[in-house]
Amino acid sequence: MSKIAAIIGRFLIAIIFIVSGASKLMDVSATETLIVAAGLPAGLAIPTGLFELITGLCLAAGFMVRLVSVLLIGFVALTILFFHHQFTDPMQQIMALKNVAIMGGLCLAFAHSQMWNHYYAIASERRGELAARDADARVREAELRAARAEARADALAGTHVPVEHVTTETVPAAALSDYDRGAIPITRRRRLFDW
What we know:
The protein is mostly helical. It is built from five helices and no strands.
């Protein structure tokens, strides 16, 4: 829920800059007059309008929020310094306080963006740990399946005979091959249920 509130708040702050930048670009001559009246050099109307419009759109879209927030905080501080510095005038005081509130909202956008970056880093680290744990579990399961298959193969091949089922008996000489003839009597393994 806090993420949704942060997105809505960021969008509402961005609307101020989008509308302000678009209005400056719509009426460049009036903007130029205000800028020159504040004692700034001429020719800043279009760059200022573009700056406000582009940064407002970036803020609304959530693109490079931390950088855009810092740039807009500096821009709004300069606006207070050059345009709303007469605090004895009630209208100028209200405009300066409005800009201070905007700077506070931009600081929150900056901080919340940092929080979500930290959250995403923690979440991705956790996903990595879970993936490693799942991989280890899959390796253990594969080793168990291989051991079970090997045990089954040994049981089917008859290579493994439990000790309690081994008996000794004398084999008749007629049943031996030429190789075994010198080894009478020999022992033979006999399994349980061996008929």
